[in-house]
Amino acid sequence: MKVTEHIEKAKNPLFSYEIVPPPRGRTVKDVVDIVKELVPYSPPWIDVTSHSSGAFYHEKPDGTIERRIYKKRPGTIGICGIIQNRFKIDTVAHILCNGFTQEETEDALIELNYLGVENVLALRGDGVNYNKKISNGRRINNYASNLVTQVDNLNKGQYVNEEVTGADALNFCIGVAGYPEKHFEAPNLKQDIRFLKQKVELGAEYIATQMFFETSHYINFVKHCRSVGIECPIIPGLKILKSVRQLQMLPKNFYINFPEELVEEVMANPEHVKEIGFNWACRQVEELLNFGVPTVHFYIMNDVSTVTKVVKRFM
Ligand code: FAD
Question: What angle do helix axes 260-268 and 273-291 make, rounded to 10 degrees?
Answer without folding.
Answer: 160
